[in-house]
Amino acid sequence: MATLHAVPETQKGVIFYENNGKLEYKDIPVPKPKANEILINVKYSGVCHTDLHAWHGDWPLATKLPLVGGHEGAGVVVGMGENVKGWKIGDYAGIKWLNGSCMACEYCEKSNESNCPEADLSGYTHDGSFQQYATADYVQAARIPQGTDLAQVAPILCAGITVYKALKSANLNAGEWVAISGAAGGLGSLAVQYAKAMGYRILGIDGGDEKKALFHELGGEIFVDFTKSKNVEQDILVATNGGAHGVINVSVSEAAIESSTRYVRSNGTVVLVGLPANAKCSSDVFNHVVKSISIVGSYVGNRADTREALDFFSRGLVKSPIKIAGLSELPEIYEKMEKGQIVGRYVVDTSK
Q: Which reaction does it catalyse (predicted)?
């Protein structure tokens, strides 16, 4: 294994041994990269709502146990296996949700690697970025330009790529209305910026004056506060003169998802992104048919989406509204996340 420097045998990380078990900040072994893996010295990692689901184990896909979570890790390549090509020691690299896939099935052939039956998921089926050193498949690892602010870029590696792919899935034209449900959260705050950069008019749905202020600061046009509005759907229909052409559902509210099928415009597209546990997307069939609406699921992005999403960031069109905390503070961040108290995105510094 080629290495940049003497990689330690142990490191700090946050690990749990059973779902809903104690989140332990402790010394754990540094993983050894396999033949097809790079070893990344993770400097920063974003904290995603999916990390909470992985800890709870409330999705119909089992996590590996014990597990080190995290899938928005940004750092430096310090080692690599013998079969790795196209990477060198010292490169900046990112850990994404999709760690690897078979690259041989129908889905991988069509660049839908995330749908591969053998997909390996960082911070879920593969130990992720809530540790100082983590491994990543060299094919799927994100290539980050040298000189990039690693704290700022970390949330792009999941949240940014995810919402960028969702906006592409809405099939909108510049000047059309996109409604973003959950517009000031970790995903929504990035969706607003990507939507603006892509030339769409943006209506945001969220709750509270602090979130309203952030939405407008990021370039959003119309804000509907669901905690104050007497009729959210009517407010959206009036504001957009007939409904949003596309809706990006990044909130984790089943009721909000169902509501979006009613305020989307005829011939519009509802995009499902957020994954509330055990939720259903209900759409009245008469409304669905007569308005000719589409409901699509958008699940992260492929390597091209990753490159494109990072390019928006590198050109300064998208920034991460982040709060930096120490990795040791992860349990407190999870608690705030469960209570819906997070504005923007938390990023943890693995050195603390």
A: a primary alcohol + NAD(+) = an aldehyde + NADH + H(+)
Above 60 in pLDDT, residue 1? no
Answer yes or no: is pLDDT of 3 > 80: no
CATH number of 159-295: 3.40.50.720
In angstroms, the CA 333 to CA 212 distance is 22
Q: Is the pLDDT of residue 187 over 80?
A: yes
What is the rounded CA–CA span in Å between residue 51 and residue 323? 17
pLDDT of residue 331: 93
Q: Is the preceding omega at residue 66 within 30 degrees of 0, hence cis?
A: yes
pLDDT at 277 over 80: no
Query: Model-level pTM?
Result: 0.89
Q: What is the DSSP string of 72-136?
A: -EEEEEEEE-TT--S--TT-EEEE-SEEE--SSSHHHHTT-GGG-TT-EEBTTTB--SSBSEEEE
Average pLDDT of the segment spanning 199-203? 97
Which residues, other chains included, contact 151 with Cβ-Cβ below 8 Å and sequence gap of 6+? 43, 44, 74, 322, 324, 347, 349
In which element (H, E) is residue 179 found? strand 177-181
- Calculate what percentage of the chain has a pLDDT beyond 90: 79
Full DSSP string of 261-319: HHHEEEEEEEEE----TT------HHHHHHTT-EEEE-----HHHHHHHHHHHHTTS--
DSSP 23-67: -EEEEEEPPPP-TTEEEEEEEEEE--HHHHHHHHT-SSSPPPSSB
Domain with CATH 3.40.50.720 in the chain: 159-295
Task: Place domain 8-156+300-347 in its CATH homologous superfamily.
Answer: Medium-chain alcohol dehydrogenases, catalytic domain (3.90.180.10)
Average pLDDT over residues 66-87: 95
